[in-house]
């Protein structure tokens, strides 16, 4: 588990994600996709979830090998998941591409959130 409590932690999440992707033989393109998605989700965890953590794990599914990143926080949660996953929708004045972009950059994406319950997002990328 890596804590996400500061801007420096976002950098550490990016570095740890890249190191894991390299160690597990991901192509440069897939490394970049994973690191970009991890960066967006770590920033959301800090900015909207008021801090949290990420777990980076190697996963095996038959012949498939991949990495799974699970971001979790105990923040205010997401009121409308459908809106939050829509390109261009943002509560923070940004471009509104964080969640939807991370979903596009991943082979698997799940999100569990509710107001007052925090948020848990799992992404996976397969080699």
List keywords for this structure.
alpha+beta, 5-stranded antiparallel beta sheet, 127 residues
Structure explained in plain terms:
The protein is α+β, with helices and mostly antiparallel strands and 127 residues long. The chain has a single domain, classed as Heat Shock Protein 90, CATH 3.30.565.10. It is 39% helix and 31% strand. The chain has four helices and five strands. A hairpin with a 2-residue loop joins β2 (52-61) and β3. α1 (7-23) runs antiparallel to α2 and α2 runs antiparallel to α4. 31% of the residues are buried.
- CATH superfamily label: Histidine kinase-like ATPase, C-terminal domain
Number of helices: 4
Give the tally of structural domains.
1
Largest sheet: 5 strands, antiparallel
Largest beta sheet: what is the strand line-up?
A: 1-2-3-5-4
Point out poorly predicted stretches: none
- How far apart lie the N and C ends? 23 Å
Q: State the name of the first-level CATH class.
A: Alpha Beta
Q: Give the number of DSSP strands.
A: 5
Structure class: alpha+beta
CATH topology heading = Heat Shock Protein 90
What is the general shape? globular
